[in-house]
Each structure stands twice: as C-alpha cells, then as structure tokens.
C-alpha cells in the first residue's frame, strides 16, 4: 500500500504508472500514451454492437413474439404514436416546423446540428492527421485508423439523432454522448493532464494547432452539447399530454445545478408573496392519478398479486431510484475523502519545500474547490430523488388510505385505553392543521437529526356471501390474481377511527418518508468509515487501529444512553398524549366550558397535565445533552489515543500534514457515529409506521361487499329484483358474529333482527317509527349495507336496488366546508329550475335571505354557521335535489319547529320532486308525517319490528301508537299556511360568503413580537443574566475549541523546530486534555441553563395560550375553526417545546462558532479579509434569495396541505352518506385534485433547498481554495498555520449552509406558518372581562332563582344589529317559563344574553344582584344551560356528569333518573348504560336522544337555581320527552327557576308562564291560560294550528307549582 508521505507513490495511485513518464523514456513501438487511443475505438465498437442488439429487440418480429408470450404486458404504443404526438393536431404547420417540434424544439435541433457539424469536423481532422502521419509504426497507423472509425461512427450516430424515428433518435443520442465523452477524456488525459505535473509533457503536442482544434471541437460536442442542450419532453400519457414544466425540459447542467429554479426565486424576490398559481404546474409524472396507477399494483390489498410487507411494495415502485441513490452515495463518499487527501498533499508540499513533488500544488488547491462541489452535486441529486420520492410516497399512501377508507365499516369509537395511548402521537392532527403536522425539524442537542432533519437541515457536508340485490349492478370487488384479501379483525383494534386515520395520513406518513434514507445507514456509514480508516492507516500506520479499537469500545456508551433516552421519550410521549387528549377534548367542548363557567378549573386541569409533561421533557433533554457530550468526546478521545500511540509508542514525528488531514478523517468518523445514532430510531419509527398502515389496510373491518371470511355462512339468496326489504336476517355493527359489541364498545350489545319479512312500498313514503334507541337508524344502515349481514336461512335476503340511485340524509346532518349551494348540488350539474324548487320546498329561502352571500355562504367547519334545523334542511335538500329514485331520510324533522316541519311535509313530501320516488323516513314527529305515509314500520325496544303495514293496520295493532297519532292527527288538516311569506322570502346575493376568518399571512421575516414572546419566556424574571450566561459560555466554548485545533498544529510544529526527542509529549497532552475538559464542562453548563430557560418559556407560553383561548368570546369561537384552535395548543406548542428551542440554541451556537472561525482565519491571514468577506456576502445574498422564496413556497405548501387533511376528515365523517349516494369516485377525484395542489407546492419547496445547497457548497469550496492559494503562493506561511487555517476554512464553508438553513427553519417554525407568531396572535384575541375581587358575589348567592330583566338589548358584535330589543320581564324563583317563537326570533340569543355571552345593554338581576357586576365564572357556574346540540366528553359516563369529582354516585344516579334515562332501560338489561359506561368522543356511540338525556342529567347535577333548556329534548321521542318533563316538574327544587326553549308545545304548555318572542322583542308574556284568551295572540295561533289543541288547552288548566 503506498504511503502518503511519498508523493510519487501517491501519484501512482492517482494517475497510474504510465502517467508519470515522458514519452521519450519509453522504448520504441511501446508508446503507451498513444495506446490510450484504443479506448475510444473499443467503446465505439461495443456501442455499435449494443445498438444493433437494441434495434433487434425492438423490431416488429420480436415485439410480436413478446406479445404472444406476455400478452398482459403488451405495449401498443409505437413510433408512429410518438410521431403523431410530436406533430400535434395543427395541420397548418409546415413539415419542417413539425419536424423540429418532434425533436424537442428549435433549441434541441440547433444543438444536434452543432454536434453533427463538430463530428464531421473531427472526422475530417482525424483523416487529415492520418494522411499527415510520418510515423512508420504499424500500430500508430492502426490507432489513427481506429480514431477515424470512431469519429465516422459518431457522424453516423449524429445523423441518426436527427433523421431517425423517435426511439432510434433517443438511442443514437445516448450512444453518441458516451462515445464522444470517452474520446474527449482520452485527449484530456493525454494532453491536458501533463500541465498539472512536473514530469510530463503533452503527448500529441506535435500536432500543433490541430490538437487544440480537436480539443475545442470535442469539448463542444462531448461536453457542451450534452450539458447545455434542453431535454426532449416525453409525456406520460401521450393521448393527453400536459404542458411541460421547466424541470422536464431543462438541460443536464440546469438540472444538476438547479438553474431551472431561478425563475421562481426571482419571481419571489420581486413580489411580496408568491401564490400557488404562480408556481410551475405539476409534472405529469407527479400527478396523483399517475402515481396511483403506478403504486396500487404494489400496495393496494385489492390489486397486489400477493400479500407482502409494504416495504417491499415500495421497493417494487422505487427500485430504479434506489439504484441511482446507491451510486450517488458512492460518489459523495469518494469526493468527501478527497478533502483530507488534498490537505495532506498541500501541507506535505509546504513541509518538504516541494521536493519530489509530481503534481503541482495548484491541482490540490483546485481540488479543494472541486471536491466539495462534486460531492454537493452528487449529494443534492441524492436528496432531489429522495425528496421527490417522499412527495410521491405521501401522495400514494394518502390516496391509498383514502380509497381504503371508503371500504371500511363505520363504527362509533370510544376513547383510547391507557395501553393504546402510548402508541399514539403526541400531536393532535386536525383538518386545519396545515403546517401542522410536519414533524418538527431541527437539530437536537444530541446532534442527531430529528424527524425531517435530512430534508431541511442536512447540508451537503450531509365471499362470498352475496348481499342480494343490494349490490345488484356492481361487480364484486376482489383482489386481482387471487390475491389475499384483507383479513377481518379479531378484536377492536382502533378506538378512534377518525383520529387514527388523521395520524396515519400525517404522522405515520411523515415517519415512513423520513425512513427512506436507509441506504445512508447500510451503505454510506460502512463505506465512509472504511475509507476513513484506510486513510488514517495510510498516514498514521497501526496507531489508527488503536483509535479504531477505542471507538469500538466506547461506541456502546452513547447507544446505551440513547436507549435510555428513548424510554424516557416514550414516557414523555405518554404524558404529552394525556395533555393533548385533555386539550383536544376541552377545545371540542369549549363552548360548554364557557357556558358552565369551567374556565379556571379546566385551565388548572390542563396545567397539571402540562407539568407532568414538562417533567419528562426536562429528563429527556438532560439525557439528550449527555448523549451529545459523550458523542462529542468519543471522536476526540479516539484522535487523542491515536496521536499518543503514534508519537509516544511508535515514536513518530507529528507533522502538520498528518495532524490536520487525520483530523478531517476523524471528523468523518464522528459524523458517521452521529449518523448511526440518529438514523437507527428513525428507521425503527418508519418500520412501526409501515406496520400501522399495513394493519389498517389488512386488518380493519370492511363492508361485507369487500370482506370475506371463512366464518361466514354461504347460502343461496332469493332474487328480489326491484324489491326494497329484508327477510329473515340479523344485522350487527361488527362481523365478529351475532350479538357482538355495538359501535364504541360501551353501548349495550345490539342486534337488529328481521325475523319474517319486511318489504317497503316502492314509489311511496314509508315511515319508520319507534322509541329512542330502538334501531330505526340501524334499519337504514342495514339497507345501505353499512351493518354486518347475518342470514338466518336459505331464503334470507337484504335488498336495496341502486340502479336508479339512492339518496340519504343522516340524522346527524353532514355538511362539507363548502358553500350552501355546493352542499346541495353535491357534484350534480346545476339546474336552476330544479334548484329553486328544492330551496322553496325545503324552506331554505328565508334562511338564505338572512345570509349576506345567500347560497354562496360557506357553511364552515362541521356547518358551524348553520343552526341544527338549517343543517337538517340542507341535508334534506341534497337528497331531494339528487336524481336518486330512493331516498333514506333519518329523522330530518327532529330539529325543525312545527311550522317548518309542516312546510316540509306540505311542500316537499307532497311536492312534485318527491312524487313517484321511494322515501324511507325515520321520524319521531309521527303526527306531522303520518298524513303522507303509505307504509309504516314500528320498531320495538328489542331491535325487532313490532309491527308493519299500512297506517290503518298499525293503528289497529299498536294501541300506544294509535293514541299518539290520534292526539296529533288533526295537525296537518287544521293547520293553515303560516308565515309562508317568511319561509319563502327571496334569497340574497351579496358578499363572497366567507365565514371562517383566514389566518393572516405574515409577509417578510419573523416578527419581533413573536421572537420577543419566546425570548422573554427564556429569560424569565432575569433575562439579562440568562442571556449573558448562555451567550458568554458558548463564546468561551467556541474559543476554547478553536484553540484546541490550533494547539494540535502548534504541537506538530514542535517537531519541525526541535529534535523529536526534545518534544515533551506529556506536556502538550495535558494541555490538550485540559482544553477538552474545559470545553465539555462549560458547554454542558451553558445548555443546562438553556434547558431550564426553554422549559420556563414552554410553561409560560402554554399557560398564557390556554388562558387566552378559554377567556375569549363566543363570537371569536364561532368564526375560528376548532381544529385551528387545537392546532395552536398541540402542534404549535410541540414546536415550541422541541423545534424552536433546539433551532434557536443551534442558531446562536453556530453563529458564534462561525464568527470565531472566520476571525481566526483573518488573524493568521489578514489580507484574506477582502475575498473572505466577498464570499460571505455572496453566501448571505444567496441565503436571502432562498429564504424569501422558501417562505412563500412553504406557506403555500402548508396551506395546500390543510385542504387535503380537511377533505380527508370530512369524507371520513360522511362515509355513510358518500357511499349511499355512490359518490366515492367524485370524492376520490377531489382528493386527487387537492393532493396535486399540495404536491405542486411541495416539489419546488424541496428543489429550492437543492438550489441553495449547490451554491453555498460551491462558495464554501471556493473560500477554502482561495485561502489555500493565498497561503501557498503568498509565502511565509508555515505548514502548521496553513493546516489550521485550511481546517477552519473547510469547517467554516461547510457551516455556511447549515447556518442559513437553521435560520430558515427557525423562521418557518417561528412564523404564523409554524408556531410563535400564531401563538402570539392568539394571545391578542378579543377577551371577556377578567374576574376582579369586586366581582365576587356573596357566599350565600344565589339563594333563589329570581330573575329580573330591564330594557335588555343584545348584539353579537359591538357594531352589529340588535338581536334583542328592549326586553323586559321578571321571573320569580321556582317558576317554569316556556319560551317560543319563530326561527330567528331571538330565543337562543336571550339565553346567551342572560349568561353575558354576547354584547348586552340594560340590566339583568339574578337573585337581586346585577349580573354585569358579577364575575363571569361566578355567574355562569350558578346558571346551567343545555344547548340544542349536546356536547359530551370521551371517558366514562361518570366523568361526563362530574368532570371535577364534586358529587357522589347517588347524586349522579338521581340526576340520570330525573333526566329520564332509566325510563329507556331496565337495570337488568344486558349492556345497559351505567356510570361506568364508556362514552365515545362527542358521544358518537349513543343516539342523539341519549346524548340529550345525558346532557340534561349533567345540568341537573349542578343544582343551579336557574336552569335553561334550549331545545334540549328536540331529538327525543314524545313519550320520553313527557317522562323528562314530568321528572323536571317533580325532581327539581321548588326554588329552581326553569326556562325552556322548545318548539314542541306539549313541552311548555303547563309552564307557569310562556314568553313569545318575535324579531327580538317580547310580544306576549303571561300565564298560558291568559295568553290563550287573546284571539289574535301568537300563542293561541300556534295552539290552534296544532293537532293536539284539546290536549294543550287541558294542560293549561293543570296545576302549576308555585314557589
């Protein structure tokens, strides 16, 4: 093995034996220089053979043979198709123009002509040289002939590249480029390389000017043309080609150096903000449709030919990319190793004065520039491919998860068990979380990359059972090729479907893409480590092996510490999960928290969770710091032991060339150590996330039509064409067998059973009635195929013909975050006449007239701008507008008052749009709907059909049902058209209808208020002391570390100045060890200070944010999506905890270190301050250009990500509706469109990073090369100082990119897009008055429920219209007051005004005290309101009734009894609801009626003196409502005042008083018996219209309960 001390031997390694001798020294006839001409002739011969072979394989005969052998892989496209595409459809173009276009355009044509001319010129010169050759040697003639043949072959290929068919042209260009490049390389080697040596001369110098002409022509043809010629655009879909983007036609040079990104960067520089439509369109090979077509055969369980791990599926997609990545890693490693070699040779040159040097020093100086540049090109191409793979993988897996979600069975979910909690992410991902779920990027104090680090911070330095006719007309979806189908789950794996899917499409996809760099761990680390050890062994002999043994011995230490850190991280994640769950639950019910006055208790509850989280965070950060310090010490100890062995034991001289070049190699070893420690957990996380995705794909329970298990019974089904019905069947919510657990696992075990036969009437309205929880909705779900079908016999069937379409309106109205019109159209073409009819018949005209933008009003997230009745009618309108022949309507009348419900029945159900269609209507409003019902199904409490048939038959068979209908049967007949003008008011058109307040786009760089927020949090009470300590300590560390490097050079210099025996090794070793100990100690102390500061900032910012949100107004909450609020409290806080603290500390550390390094260079080389400053300014300018463009693109990327997640979440929430309408394809296309929008922004985002990296690395290499030139040729510099300066320069140049990227990431994480500015703005939102000492009421208050209102006005905004006008009334303690009125009359506004939730004027006295003088929390905690939409928390029923553990079980059970729950169930019922029953998030495992009962019970528990019911029993059947009202009359204390807002007159007619509101004013207020005496009174009008008029009149004669 050659020694690096021997330059001649080293030259042999580089150039070979033939490269160092002059031609004159060779024997005649054996001129090996001229023998190198054999290479281009040989390459041309091989090329010709391969070209013929390729043409043969592409011949028509071979194609025909392949078609017969592999018919499934037949490719129809041929060259004629290519010509047709290239020519286009414009027949008016000239033949020449079409020909030029077929080549790729005029530029490509010009370059090919140029190459053709150069090839012919080269052939002519070669022939001329052959004719002029006077060398009698036969070999010389043969070589010249071979060269002529090579250029003749090049001319032939050049002609083919212009005149052949497209495929042939492409082949010819490739072969031509290779042949010419080899010829160019040979000429350069023979005639240019000798100028870089001391011992050689150009071989072909005797050719004179002809030689240089050949070199110029070859350089143009072989280098310039391939590098500069644009590439021809080849569309993926040649039938529908897209407009090519710059990336697709950029030349190789532009693609390599990313010049094609210049237009984006300049456009961003010239404007304040670059919009998404200003970015380049999406390339056709990156469109989601193409990616789906490419990936599904490998990933989709229903298309993959065999079941295998998703990793191998991804490898099957990206195998070509990974081959390229492999070679890019090799090039990078080899290029990086060139830097220490160059430093060694330069310093060796200085030490020896150039003695025995073969290569001139300027070669090594140039190499210091070319080495990092070449490494950067290879590395950035590696990252270019991996980031493109990342974006494509995101699109593929997101689409795959979305498509698979359309197949799954929707089951209500309960909260996660403690065991599951640890498996979830700490980041609550929500549809609004746009920037959100990007894994926090940054550098940990450990030095290991965090998630996403390699993207953002890596520098170049780095059955079957048929469902009968329910599936008629649809083919069975089965995997192709007999592939294995997804298995049915064996147990309830998921506890929250929507939450899990959100995590899969955000966190898990992010982790999967982060793990794409496994080649770094399995290729780069071992290869680079091996080369480094080889290099060290070459210059330090076997002492390098001692260092290697030391490193191997110490390597388990950081690994062991990292394993402990991972355990602590798991505990920290568990605590974070607990806080996130609490925060998410709180923010989902934040309106309830405010209405109940729970702000401060809730804040304390969250703070407890936060403190526990911060405790684990502190432990994790301290351990990470320890890991970093150990990882820092180990390479230095390895280097130290190596030097000690080399100098003390081996007694060798420590020269500067050895010291500084070996330091560079030791840095590479340290880099690999950090890389290994960093990548192992990333790989593990990626594997776990891949398994989670695979589990969802293969183990999630699917609808019966997609799932087949061996347990299913195969039976023959009766064909029932056109029949809607069920025979002899059972249905459950799980395929685990009959009687399995209901959705969510906490509800009673429910099975829907149809023992005989149920055939619904076609072309008529069918009613489904029954008590709450009897299975009415389940019947619809069974028909739709949403429940698991269990046939009970050979004649069993379930049938719902879908040929003519099915429409569905869910009980919980599902709307998308689109305009009202878009929600109604639901993808159908706009038919103005039909649309207007729907609006009229669904009583929406008046509602639209209330909105400024009419039907262009955005409904907001989950329809937050709409009332429950409006959402129900829009959902109904969607079904009516559709062309579906069968409509399934689930309790659409529940949320409507009697007049609106009557309108719907009269205008819609009796209208022309419903006539002839089959309607299956679930309803509690039997009296309203019975007049249109031709067939009735009555459900029993056991999930069976109690009775069915015509209405008259049901009335005769069911006495209770008959009595109910009899009481109300006159309603439709007697009621007159009421307020038709109001309900049919014309719609408005106006503003754009945007409701959701868009997040302000912060333009420019990070705002000081946001940074000030964090800086003050870090410093706490003594900010000056904190910053002085931290900055001072870092500065001392950087100075000492730089001194360490200089001291090694000084140590080596002693061997030059003194006899080696006189050098006191122990002395220098002690000083170096002391410096090392000082650096580690001070650095550790500095970061201990910073860790405590970051924890202090995290605690304060979180506390302030939660307090601010809980203290805001309902008005702000109405216009801010809950998901956005949750994102602030979860993702953004997580960013504050991790990314921002890490990035800020690293930015400060790197800034100080770069300053120290630059100053140390200037101290030793003062004159270099000018070129050094110029390069630094150029680097900063590139950074500014980059950051301006990156902020714009990152903003658009984040904004484009949110709609993807929002659409995904909305689709999951409405899966049943989507499948009922058969709208899967529509939603799939919309998903593709949104993913394309995201990809359009993501592609330039990552390409911008590559643009910057190439330039900063080139500038860094230039910086080091210029410094080396100055030191070598400037004279006077010693080898040790030169080595120190070069080491500092190389390190400084490598840090330029890191510094710019860390600053950029700090801005991205500190902007509105990230966290700090968004959090800062949430601290400045509008707030309600804060509590004061004067606002505390007396301890006895309230002693009664007296309520007095004087001249009350109310508005929803300070400058908005008054919704209540001069309201005056008085209610004595214990009175029951009913509140009625039309929609929009101010009923709900009055309840909010009493709680001071909106802006009020006037006086409200509660138990004698004016409410405006009482603190809001005291007021609201003593008034209880039950809103129309009940809000429940996940957890047990006990936790829902008593979240703060204030009451015993007896009180809770009493409240449940009073609320009427026990009237719906018997205690001995299996699975009855108890205090320990689990409630799913939002109460999704309960019926709406059950939720309202539980909300009522929670209100009763509070024992307030004033209880307000706002339509609290609207979704409960009449019988249960009657039970509840009876309970309220007897169970509540006699001093409890009850205000009841209701549209059911039965609910409030026996009240002590009734208040009638109209347009915000009280028009009637008195005892109901008195009000009924007014012939023209509104209440009397309502009663007269009602079908139960006699009952209502009799109720007013009942006994009221005075206080």
Task: Describe this structure as you would to a colleague.
This protein is an alpha/beta fold. The protein has 4 domains: 7-232, no CATH class; 286-414 and 421-697 and 1006-1322, ABC transporter transmembrane region fold; 724-800 and 818-983, P-loop containing nucleotide triphosphate hydrolases (Rossmann fold); 1343-1422 and 1543-1602, Rossmann fold. 58% of the residues lie in helices and 7% in strands. It is built from 56 helices and 22 strands. It has a 6-stranded mixed beta sheet with strand order 6-7-8-3-9-10, sandwiched between helices. A hairpin with a 5-residue loop joins strand 9 and strand 10 (945-949). Helix 16 packs antiparallel against helix 19 (497-514) and helix 38 runs antiparallel to helix 45 (1279-1310). The longest helix has 51 residues, at 599-649. The N terminus and C terminus are likely disordered.
CATH topology of the largest domain: ABC transporter transmembrane region fold
Question: What is the architecture of the largest domain at the second tier of CATH?
Answer: Up-down Bundle
Strand percentage: 5-15%
Put simply, the count of helices is 56
Helix content: 55-70%
Q: Strand order within the widest sheet?
A: 6-7-8-3-9-10
Number of strands: 22
InterPro entries: AAA+_ATPase (IPR003593), ABC1_TM_dom (IPR011527), ABC1_TM_sf (IPR036640), ABC_transporter-like_ATP-bd (IPR003439), ABC_transporter-like_CS (IPR017871), ABC_transporter_C-like (IPR050173), P-loop_NTPase (IPR027417)
Organism: Obba rivulosa
Main location: membrane
Protein name: P-loop containing nucleoside triphosphate hydrolase protein
């Amino acid at each position: 093995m050659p020694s690096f001390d021997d330059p001649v031997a080293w030259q042999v390694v580089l150039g070979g034996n033939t490269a160092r001798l002059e031609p004159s020294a060779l024997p005649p006839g054996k001129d090996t220089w001229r023998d190198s001409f054999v290479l281009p002739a040989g390459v041309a011969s091989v090329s010709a053979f391969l070209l013929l072979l390729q043409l043969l394989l592409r011949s028509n005969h071979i194609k025909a043979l392949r078609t017969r052998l592999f018919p499934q892989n037949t490719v129809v496209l041929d060259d004629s198709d290519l010509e047709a595409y290239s020519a286009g459809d414009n027949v008016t173009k000239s033949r020449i123009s079409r020909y030029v276009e077929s080549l790729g355009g005029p530029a490509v044509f010009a370059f090919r002509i140029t190459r053709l001319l150069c090839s012919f010129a080269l052939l002519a010169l070669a022939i001329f040289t052959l004719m002029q050759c006077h060398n009698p040697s036969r070999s010389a003639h043969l070589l010249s002939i071979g060269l002529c043949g090579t250029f003749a072959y090049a001319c032939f290929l050049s002609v083919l590249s212009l005149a052949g068919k497209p495929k042939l042209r492409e082949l010819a260009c490739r072969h031509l480029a290779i042949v010419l490049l080899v010829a160019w390389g040979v000429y350069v080697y023979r005639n240019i390389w000798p100028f870089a040596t001391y011992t050689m001369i150009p071989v072909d110098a005797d050719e004179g000017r002809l030689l240089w002409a050949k070199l110029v022509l070859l350089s143009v043809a072989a280098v310039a043309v391939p590098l500069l010629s644009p590439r021809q655009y080849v569309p993926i879909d040649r039938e529908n080609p897209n407009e090519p983007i710059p990336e697709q036609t950029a030349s190789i040079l532009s693609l390599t150096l990313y010049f094609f990104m210049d237009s984006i960067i300049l456009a961003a520089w010239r404007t304040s903000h670059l919009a998404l439509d200003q970015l380049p369109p999406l390339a056709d090979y990156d469109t989601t449709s193409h990616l789906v077509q490419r990936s599904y055969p490998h990933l989709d369980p229903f298309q993959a030919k065999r079941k295998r791990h998703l990793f191998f599926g991804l490898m099957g997609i990206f195998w070509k990319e990974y081959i390229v990545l492999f070679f890019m890693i090799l090039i990078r490693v080899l290029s990086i190793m060139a830097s220490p070699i160059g430093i060694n040779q330069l310093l060796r040159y200085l030490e020896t004065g150039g003695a025995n040097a073969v290569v001139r020093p300027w070669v090594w100086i140039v190499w210091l520039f070319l080495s990092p540049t070449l490494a950067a090109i290879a590395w950035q191409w590696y990252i270019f491919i991996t980031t493109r793979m990342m974006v494509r993988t995101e699109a593929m897996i997101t689409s795959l998860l979305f498509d698979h979600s359309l197949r799954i069975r929707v089951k209500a979910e309960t909260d996660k068990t403690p065991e599951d909690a640890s498996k979830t992410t700490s980041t609550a991902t929500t549809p609004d979380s746009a920037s959100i779920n990007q894994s926090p990027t940054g550098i940990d104090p450990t030095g290991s990359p965090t998630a996403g680090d390699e993207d953002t911070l890596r520098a170049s330095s780095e059955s079957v059972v048929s469902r009968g006719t329910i599936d008629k007309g649809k083919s069975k979806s089965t995997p192709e090729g007999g592939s294995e189908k997804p298995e049915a789950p064996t147990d309830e794996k998921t506890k929250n479907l929507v939450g899990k899917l959100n995590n899969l499409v955000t966190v898990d996809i992010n982790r999967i893409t982060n793990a794409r760099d496994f080649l770094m761990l399995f290729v780069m680390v071992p290869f680079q480590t091996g080369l480094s050890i080889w290099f060290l062994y070459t210059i330090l002999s076997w002492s390098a092996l001692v260092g290697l043994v030391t490193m191997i011995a110490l390597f388990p230490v950081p690994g062991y510490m990292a394993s402990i850190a991972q355990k602590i991280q798991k505990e920290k994640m568990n605590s974070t999960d607990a806080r996130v769950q609490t925060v998410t639950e709180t923010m989902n019910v934040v309106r309830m928290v405010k209405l109940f006055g729970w702000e401060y208790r809730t804040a304390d509850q969250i703070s407890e969770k936060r403190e526990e989280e911060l405790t684990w965070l502190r432990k994790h950060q301290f351990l990470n710091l320890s890991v970093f310090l150990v990882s820092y010490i180990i390479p230095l100890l390895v280097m130290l032991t190596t030097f000690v062995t080399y100098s003390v034991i081996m007694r060798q001289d420590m020269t500067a060339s050895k010291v500084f070049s070996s330091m560079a190699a030791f840095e590479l070893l340290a880099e690999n150590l950090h890389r290994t420690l960093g990548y192992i957990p990333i790989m593990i996380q990626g594997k776990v996330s891949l398994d989670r995705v695979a589990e969802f794909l293969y183990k999630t329970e699917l609808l019966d039509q997609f799932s087949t298990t061996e347990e299913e019974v195969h039976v023959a089904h009766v064909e029932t064409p056109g029949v809607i019905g069920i025979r002899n069947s059972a249905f459950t919510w799980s395929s685990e067998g009959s009687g399995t657990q209901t959705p969510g696992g906490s509800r009673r075990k429910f099975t829907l059973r149809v023992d005989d036969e149920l055939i619904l009437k076609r072309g008529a309205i069918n009613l489904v009635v029954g008590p709450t929880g009897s299975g009415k909705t389940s019947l619809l779900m069974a028909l739709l195929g949403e429940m698991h079908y269990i046939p009970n016999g050979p004649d069993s069937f379930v049938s719902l013909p879908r040929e003519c379409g099915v429409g569905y309106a869910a009980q919980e109205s599902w709307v998308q975050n689109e305009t009202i019109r878009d929600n109604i159209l639901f993808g159908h073409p706009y038919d103005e006449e039909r649309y207007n009819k729907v609006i009229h018949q669904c009583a929406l005209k008046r509602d639209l007239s209330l909105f400024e933008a009419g039907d262009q009003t955005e409904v907001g997230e989950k329809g937050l701008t709409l009332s429950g009745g409006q959402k129900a009618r829009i959902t109904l309108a969607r079904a009516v507008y559709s062309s579906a022949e069968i409509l399934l309507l689930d309790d659409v009348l529940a949320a409507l008052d009697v007049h609106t419900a009557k309108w719907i029945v009269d205008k819609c159900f009796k209208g022309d749009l419903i006539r002839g269609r089959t309607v299956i209507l679930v309803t509690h409003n039997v009296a309203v709907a019975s007049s249109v019902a031709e067939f009735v199904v009555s459900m029993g409490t056991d999930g069976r059909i109690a009775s069915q048939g015509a209405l008259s038959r049901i009335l005769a068979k069911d006495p209770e049902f008959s009595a109910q209908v009899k009481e109300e049967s006159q309603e439709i007949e007697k009621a007159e058209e009421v307020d038709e003008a109001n309900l049919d008011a014309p719609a408005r058109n106006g503003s754009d209808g945007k409701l959701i307040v868009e997040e302000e786009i912060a333009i420019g760089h990070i705002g000081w208020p946001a940074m000030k927020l964090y800086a003050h949090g870090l410093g706490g009470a003594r900010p000056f002391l904190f910053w002085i300590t931290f900055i001072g300590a870092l500065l001392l560390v950087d100075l000492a570390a730089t001194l360490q490097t200089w001291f090694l050079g000084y140590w080596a210099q002693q061997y030059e100045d003194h006899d080696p025996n006189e050098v006191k090794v122990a002395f220098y070793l002690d000083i170096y060890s002391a410096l090392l100990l000082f650096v580690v100690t001070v650095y550790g102390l500095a970061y201990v200070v910073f860790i405590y500061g970051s924890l202090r900032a995290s605690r304060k910012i979180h506390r302030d944010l939660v307090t601010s949100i809980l203290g805001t107004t309902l008005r702000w909450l109405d216009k801010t999506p809950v998901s956005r609020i949750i994102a602030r409290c979860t993702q953004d806080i997580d960013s504050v905890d991790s990314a921002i603290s890490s990035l800020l500390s690293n930015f400060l550390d790197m800034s100080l270190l770069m300053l120290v390094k630059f100053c140390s260079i200037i101290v030793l080389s003062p004159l270099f301050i000018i070129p050094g400053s110029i390069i630094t300014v150029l680097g900063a300018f590139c950074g500014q250009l980059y950051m301006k463009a990156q902020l714009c693109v990152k903003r658009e990327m984040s904004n484009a990500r949110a709609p993807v997640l929002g659409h995904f979440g909305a689709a999951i929430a409405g899966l049943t509706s989507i499948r009922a309408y058969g709208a899967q394809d529509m939603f799939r296309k919309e998903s593709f469109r949104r993913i394309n929008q995201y990809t359009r922004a993501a592609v330039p985002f990552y390409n911008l990073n590559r643009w910057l990296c190439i330039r900063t690395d080139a500038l860094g290499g230039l910086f080091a090369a210029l410094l080396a030139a100055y030191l070598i040729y400037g004279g006077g510099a010693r080898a040790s100082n030169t080595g120190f300066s070069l080491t500092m320069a190389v390190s400084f140049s490598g840090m330029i990119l890191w510094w710019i990227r860390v600053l950029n990431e700090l801005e991205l994480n500190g902007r509105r897009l990230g966290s700090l500015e968004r959090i800062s703005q949430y601290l400045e939102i509008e707030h309600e008055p804060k509590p004061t000492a004067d606002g505390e009421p007396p301890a006895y208050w309230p002693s009664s429920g007296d309520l007095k209102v004087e001249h009350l006005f109310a508005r929803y905004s300070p400058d908005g219209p008054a919704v209540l006008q001069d309201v005056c009334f008085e209610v004595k303690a214990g009175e029951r007051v009913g509140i009625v009125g039309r929609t929009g009359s101010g009923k709900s506004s009055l309840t909010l005004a009493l709680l001071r939730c909106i802006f009020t004027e006037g006086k409200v006295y509660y138990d004698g005290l004016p409410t405006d003088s009482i603190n809001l929390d005291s007021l609201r905690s003593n008034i209880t309101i039950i809103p129309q939409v009940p809000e429940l928390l996940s957890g047990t029923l006990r936790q829902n009734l008593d979240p703060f553990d204030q009451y015993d079980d007896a009180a809770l059970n009493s409240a449940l009894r009073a609320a009427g729950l026990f009237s719906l169930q018997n205690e001995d019922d299996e699975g009855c609801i108890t205090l320990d029953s689990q409630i799913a998030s939002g109460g999704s495992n309960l019926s709406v009626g059950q939720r309202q009962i539980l909300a009522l019970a929670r209100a009763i528990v509070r024992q307030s003196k004033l209880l307000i019911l706002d339509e609290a029993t609207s979704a409960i059947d009449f019988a249960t409502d009657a039970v509840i009202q009876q309970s309220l009359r007897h169970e509540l204390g006699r001093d409890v005042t009850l205000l009841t807002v209701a549209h059911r007159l039965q609910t409030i007619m026996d009240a002590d008083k009734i208040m009638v509101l109209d347009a915000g004013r009280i028009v009637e207020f008195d005892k109901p018996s008195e009000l009924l005496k007014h012939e023209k009174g509104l209440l009397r009008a309502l009663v007269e219209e009602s079908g139960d008029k006699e009952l209502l009149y009799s109720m007013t004669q009942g006994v009221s309960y005075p206080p």
